[in-house]
Hints:
The chain is α/β, with parallel strands linked by helices.
Amino acid sequence: MVRRRKSPENLRSHRWFGVSDLRAFGHRSRAKQMGLDEADYLGKPVIGILNTWSEINPCHAHFRERAETVKRGVLQAGGMPVELPVMSLSEPYVKPTTMLYRNLLAMEVEELIRSHPVDGVVLMGGCDKTTPALLMGAISVDLPSIFVPAGPMLRGNMRGAVLGSGSDVWKYWADLQAGKIDEQVWLEVEEGIARSFGHCMTMGTASTMTALAEVLGFTLPGASSIPAADSNHIRMAARAGRQIVEMIWEDLKPSEIVSEQAIRNAIVADMAIGGSTNAIVHLLAIAGRAEIPLSLESIDKISRQVPVIANIRPSGEFLMEDFYYAGGLRGLMTRLRDHLDLSALNITGQTLGDCLGGAEIFNDDVIRCLDNPIYPAGATAILFGNLAPNGCVIKPAAAEARLLRHVGPAIVFRNYDDMAARIDDPGLAATPEHVLVLQNAGPVGAPGMPEWGQLPIPKPILEGGVRDMVRISDARMSGTSYGTCVLHVAPESAIGGPLALVQDGDQIELDVDQRRLHLHVDDVELEKRRAAWRPPKPHFERGFGTMYVQHIQQADTGCDFDFLIGHGGVGEPEIH
């Protein structure tokens, strides 16, 4: 595509700094107050660097230095960098869940870009909800935007065993509960599982979403796979700084990058990498911001066509560091060519096909061939039925095969506190055939749809050697988790969805191959229960939480706010 390059007078920042009026005088004088000369910013693109660094976000601990590297790249290309800190959603620490605040960060990004004198932005993120929030806000504003992923941390180590974020936490915790390991081993797991800055090095939500940001076209080719501690990551950050300046002159915006083809490519890649179930709700939200139709049915259709070929925990054996050195995301996509639309555009101005040029695979065990997959279908399956009329999700690649078709009696927990109080009670009378059901854990009910969906296995059952049971909830689960966990049940129980009507002893049928989740209770009985049902008390009386509950959508449409769907546009503020 031949583009007409912008002139300096067409820059958005020119309206703040370049005109001859009293307001521009004020802008220039305040810039001089900070030690800047007109040569620093006049006639140059002003680049907002949206940095999610904080001292309580270990995934982004290196972003203070990486921001300086991005600035170096911007300056090299003739731009003016301006660092703008934004909310840092630290997955390990923010309670009840960072998902409660994903839309708040997206709003902050949107309004920060719109209200400041920037011509384009560098989005710095990586921790789970940070990536979709940054992309959602940037898509809504539609100024040139490039994403710099945090990168995965180094692989963990304990007594010579390789440890993976999350996945091995659940594994060793189950072993501790079952008496298979002692407290000393558990302490060594704690000390060895997180050895560097960067996000989870399993194919959890962080690695999934940064990979999908690349497939969508928001990163430099190959950027998402680079380990955070690798010097290639530093060089990538500088190149991103240079690239955003070129994007501004070319006026290459998200609306040209996030197309129907790009969204479909992201779903294909998500299925092939064994991506987190959380990717579904985030992709729905991203598509909604870009005004691209996307349904759970269309996602499941792709899932049936694309196998899991990335041999990465929790679905497989290896970790992100191994994935990168085996060829990374670009290498994997070379094996998906027949499933991808290679004409989709990237922030470099090239097509996806161009970006895959020269990509190779160096380890066929880490990145499998299509005829030798980890799992023969996609990572995530979409189920429907009278228990989830609007859909729900499961990750069959990380479940025990024996449970993918199962009928069993329900044990129902009213909420998380009820579950925590009773799950290990000897009087629970749970068997491996039971189906554990958690209610009121969805967007409204929890609130915020936390990662409670991997319900713990009752201790007596763990002691018997069982490591998986069917578990159903309207919650999410960590992308690093595994097990036969049915998630994102919609509509959720807190607003009267059928999950709210389940009682102890009800027979529940799960059939992943048939995409079916069915409650074996007749309609007359369900109507009686519905008439007796009462909604839980609201969690909030003020502030953001009140707004959240009033406007949050359900999981099947992305859990975005109803007033933020679609393009917002740059909406230039009046400069008076």
